[in-house]
Amino acid sequence: MDDPIAIVSLVVAMLGVIFTWRKFREDSLRRGEVLTWANEAIDCLEGLVIICILMRQKDFETECRNRLIAITFNSAALIEKGRIFFKNQKSGSFGHHKMPAYRGLRPLVLDPLVAAHQISVRLLSGEARSINALQCLAEDGVKSFVSLIQKEIGRDRTASRVAQRGGAGFNLDVSISKIAPDRIARIEELSSRDLKRYRTDPPPL
Hints:
This protein is mainly alpha-helical. It contains 8 helices and no strands. It has one domain. Helix 2 packs antiparallel against helix 3, helix 2 packs antiparallel against helix 5 and helix 3 packs antiparallel against helix 4. The model has no long low-confidence stretch (mean pLDDT 84).
């Protein structure tokens, strides 16, 4: 085939077939919907970890309680939404007396949300003997979920190789010690000047 136009047409046709196949595969796996669900689940799971950290402080008691109530409701709903994408695994006659969606073993990916729901209920009940222990479980839950969902819908490669390079880790105190003193002094100078300006000429309310 020496005709360049024919070659281009063939290449375009092949690319069209590949694109159509990939779109069909994406649609059949409902990856976009699973991603939306997973993002909501991560908000819930990570929020629970932060609550366990902050609820010990009096200033955050009310806010943490309100967020715990929201997590209790949201986690329950996210478990049921997750059943749409991840079906129970059949295991003999286990759960045969239940409705079809609940027969067999619950998918592993839903367990962190079940744990989050139970932890939030326990914290709200005031019967939590050890917040530290519940925090450990909450941390394990979010890490387990992210690991599982990354295998489900994570990308095999990134658009940039730089973004995929292994990081060196981050330590806040070490990073602070590396900041040049004159840079900090400059920020302090600007902050002081802006504060004086605000006091002499406050913005209209």
